[in-house]
Write a sequence for this structure.
């Protein structure tokens, strides 16, 4: 969205209706599950407006939970066991019922969140948090969410203020694995420099390198 999206507040509701942008089969391209066949449930709207974000999440529709589950099962085609709930910001909406249904149908569930919102989720949900900088430093990761986070993924860039380093948001005392991922700035030279920075940080600090495999492969 490149920062052009409206800022959307958390949605009330019991989770029986969700604002869904898309449901599709793919390979997880980032973070701890990279390379694994997955079904993505991309939810609409975000409470932040990051100017590097290249994801479309503002064209969404209201879908009943049973329809979401039906489309996930079709997309899984009996071979995908990982369901990834993303956005936008998935914790804007009450995704606890969706997570519970997915787990009950044998899926492993991963969500990706920016860390500024919290909802109680069932045990067994893997949470990957990708903190984002603000004008005054990184937005704090909520302490109640941080207790559940399985991995932190930092987007890094040599060219954008605030993205040149990995911040301490609580990962060290909790020994949370840290992934560094080069920002895609739609510029070959900048992207090469961002990859070099990510590799440098990974090797100097013991972080894990995350590349956007889906973009390398040319898939959604």
């Amino acid at each position: 969205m490149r920062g052009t999206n409206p800022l959307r507040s958390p949605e009330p509701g019991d989770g029986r209706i969700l604002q869904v942008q898309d449901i599709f089969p793919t390979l997880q391209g980032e973070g701890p599950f990279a390379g694994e066949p997955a079904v993505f449930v991309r939810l609409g709207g975000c409470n932040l407006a990051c100017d590097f974000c290249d994801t479309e999440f503002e064209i969404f529709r209201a879908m009943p939970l049973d329809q979401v589950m039906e489309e996930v099962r079709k997309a899984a085609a009996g071979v995908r066991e990982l369901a990834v709930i993303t956005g936008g910001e998935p914790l804007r909406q009450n995704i606890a019922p969706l997570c519970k249904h997915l787990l009950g149908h044998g899926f492993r569930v991963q969500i990706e969140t920016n860390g500024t919102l919290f909802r109680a989720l069932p045990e067994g949900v893997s949470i990957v948090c990708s903190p984002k900088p603000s004008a005054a430093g990184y937005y704090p990761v909520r302490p109640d969410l941080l207790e559940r986070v399985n991995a932190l993924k930092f987007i890094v860039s040599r060219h954008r203020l605030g993205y040149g380093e990995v911040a301490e948001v609580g990962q060290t005392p909790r020994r949370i694995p840290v992934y560094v991922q080069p920002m895609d700035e739609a510029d070959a030279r900048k992207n090469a420099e961002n990859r070099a920075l990510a590799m440098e940080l990974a090797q100097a600090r013991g972080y894990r390198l995350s590349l956007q495999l889906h973009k390398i492969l040319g898939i959604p």
